[in-house]
Amino acid sequence: MTTPAMGRPRTPYRRRLLGRRLPVLLGAALVLTLLGPFGTFAELTLAQRLAYWVGLIGLGGLAFELLTLAATRLRRERPEAWRSMLAGVTLAVAAPMTLAVALLEKSLRGKDMLHPLGLAELFVYVVLVTLLVSAIPVWLELRDRGLLAGPTPPPSPPVPDNAPASPANPAAPAFFARLPARLGRDLLALEMEDHYVRVHTAEGSDLILMRLRDAIGELAGLDGMQVHRSHWVAAAAVAEMERKPDGKLVLVLRNGLRVPVSRSYAMAVREAGWAEKTRP
After folding, report:
1. Is 128 in the same domain as 212?
2. Would you write out the chain's pLDDT as a tens digit for each of its 280 residues?
3. Is 246 inside any structural domain?
4. Whether residue 177 sits in one domain with residue 272
5. Do 240 and 279 form a contact (C-beta atoms < 8 A)?
6. Count of CA atoms in the C-beta half-sphere (13 A) of 257
7. Which structural domain range is residue 112 located in?
C-alpha cells in the first residue's frame, strides 16, 4: 500500500468526523454540563445546562468544520505557518461565539454582557473553550493530512534564458527551477490536484500552483507521456505495468506509486514499449 500524498487525508472523512471530532464535541459538552462553569451550575438545571452547552458547542463545531477547510488550504499554500494558522482559527471561531454567548446570557439569565468590558471578559472564556473544542481537532486534521512536517525550502531561483541547461534534465530547466531543492531532480510523475500539480520525485512529493498541461509543456523533450487526464509519467519511473481484470492498465512506479492509464492513452503506452514491463 502506498503512502497517501501530503495534503490528502489518510483517514476517510466519515471516520475522522465520527471517530475524532464528534467525540471531542460531545465530551466537551458533557464535561461542561457536569461542571457547570461560569455560573451555569448554580443558575441552571441539569437539562438546561445540557441544552446550553450542547447548543454552544454544536455551533462552535459547525464553525470549526467550515474553518478547517480554509485552514488546510492555507496550510497547503504556506507550509511554514501552521502554528499561526491554529491561533487564527481559534480567534476566528471565538469572535462570533462571544457575541452568541452574550445574546444567550441576556435572554436566558438576564445578564447584560453586550458592552465592551463584558464582551472582553466573555471573549477570554470563549477562547479557552474554543481551544478545547477546535484547536485539538484542527491539529489532528493537519496531522492526518501529513501537513505538520517542517517548512518547505524556498523554490530554486528562475533559470536565466542564457544559462546552460540543467545537466540532470537539459530538456526542462524551466520546470525544474520550480521544484524545492529537497525534491531533487529525479522526476517520476505529475498528478493534477485541484488547481495544483503534485510533483512526485524519488525524494518525495510537493504541490506547485499551475495547470498540468502547462507543466507538461515545460517538460517537452523529457522522455515521458501523459497517461491519464490527471497524470503524466516519466518513462524511467515505470517499474512495471499491471492489467486489471476489467482490462484497464495501471503503471507501478519505482517508488511504489500506482498510476492509472485511461483507455484513450493505452495505445500510446503500448507503443512506447511500457507494456513489455507487464507483470506476468
Report:
1. no
2. 334 444 555 567 677 777 777 887 888 888 888 888 777 888 888 998 898 888 888 887 777 777 766 665 655 545 455 566 667 777 777 788 888 888 888 887 888 888 888 888 888 888 887 777 766 776 676 666 565 544 444 444 554 544 444 444 444 447 888 888 888 889 999 999 888 899 999 999 999 888 998 888 888 778 889 999 999 999 999 999 888 888 888 999 999 899 999 988 888 888 888 877 655 4
3. yes
4. yes
5. yes
6. 27
7. 13-144
Q: What is the CATH number of the domain that holds 215?
A: 2.40.50.1020
In angstroms, how far is CA 105 from the centroid of its own chain? 37
264 assigned to some structural domain:
yes
Cα separation, 237 vs 191, whole angstroms: 14
- How many residues does the structure list for the chain? 280
> Alpha-carbon distance 216 to 172, whole Å?
10
Give the three cell numbers for residue 53: 452547552
Match 503506452 to its residue by C-alpha cell: 269
State pTM to two decimals: 0.43
| The three-state (H, E, C) secondary structure of 104-158, written as one string | HHHHHHCCCCCCHHHHHHHHHHHHHHHHHHHHHHHHHHHHHCCCCCCCCCCECCC
C-alpha cell of residue 12: 476517510
Distance of alpha carbon 193 from alpha carbon 207, whole angstroms:
8
Which residues 6+ apart lie within 8 Å of 199 measured at CB? Answer: 179, 183, 187, 190, 205, 206, 207, 208, 215
Task: Locate 163 and state its grid cell.
Answer: 544559462
Supply 93's cell numbers: 471561531
